[in-house]
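Lecture 7 notes: from sequence to structure.
We start with the chain below.
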Amino acid sequence: MPSSRLAALPSKLFLFVAILFPRHFSRGRKKAAPRPISTHGKVGRVKQLDRIQHRLREAQSAFLRAADAVPADQWTAKPVAEAWSAAELVAHLVILERAVLGGADRISQKTPKPIPFLKRRHLPLWLVQTRIVRRKSPIPLDPSLIGNKEDMLGELRAARERTMAFLEETRARDLSAYCWPHAFLGMLDIYEWFEMLAVHQVRHTKQIREISARLPKVVGISQN
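Predicted structure tokens for the same chain:
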């Protein structure tokens, strides 16, 4: 169709003709240069990973400082009968961190299962940190982990080091498709599970401070 006749067509009819004869309208046009592959997703994931690692380091440091206030000879003492001791609290943290890391390592070696968007929704992680809702842990304590203060804090440090090593080893991968449910929060992906470890430790930092404050104070008696 001559271009002069095309120019005289009403706009709606012009669009209809353009759809029917696409080759006519592509003549003389330069092909668009291929769009560069966006790295926005990768950059965002790296920033998320850096934030999680920072939170894990900060949470660990704060917890260890708080644990220093608990005397070694009162490490397994309970401030009240129904409360945890500092030793039981650290054992709980070690068990949870090992469980999360083991789960992440196991599922990340398989093909991720597609999970509908609505099923991926979950409660905000800050709920864990606030201690607004106090729940009994679904993970039973392992009595074999109870020991002296120095050894148990060493186990806690080792567990965190293994977590950080996993995050570094998988830094080049996108693990956000790997998910499994949290008993209270709902479905979390791998990165959210590790961020949960940080806020969970902040929660228990508050608790170990309470334990330290409620333990009986040993007052030395000077002899003349």
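Points to note: Residues 3-9, 12-40, 219-224 have pLDDT under 50 and may be disordered. The chain has one domain: 42-213.
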